[in-house]
Design brief:
Rossmann fold, 6% strand, mainly alpha, two-stranded parallel ribbon, 45% helix, 5 helices, 99 residues
Length: 99
């Protein structure tokens, strides 16, 4: 729960990201890939990303799957998004061709 990405949605069936990382580190090999057949809110997939390991997860429940999908985007470059936002705000409608 140290990273904000793990705190924005409390998943009751969740577990510690630090514990997941320790288990991955204990058992990983040079060409490891993480498979999480019950991905839940994405804790294991996020841990794999933080360890620079490829991962694949599956989750049947649509809502929880959407949470995991969005949490996996936690490393978005905020400064880039701010720049894009400013460009949009500073663009007048006359710059667009609506035809």
């Amino acid at each position: 729960m140290k990273l904000p990405v793990h705190r924005w949605f409390r998943y009751t069936a969740g577990f510690s990201a630090e514990w997941v990382k320790s288990v991955i580190m204990e058992h990983k090999k040079a060409d490891s890939m993480i498979l999480d057949p019950f991905a839940g809110s994405g804790t294991t997939l996020i841990a794999a990303n933080e360890l620079n390991l490829p991962s694949v997860g599956y989750e049947k429940q649509y809502f929880v799957r959407r949470i995991a999908h969005n949490k996996l985007r936690y490393d978005v470059n905020i400064e880039h998004l701010k720049k894009l936002y400013k460009e949009i705000v500073n663009t007048s409608f006359s710059d667009f061709n609506f035809e």
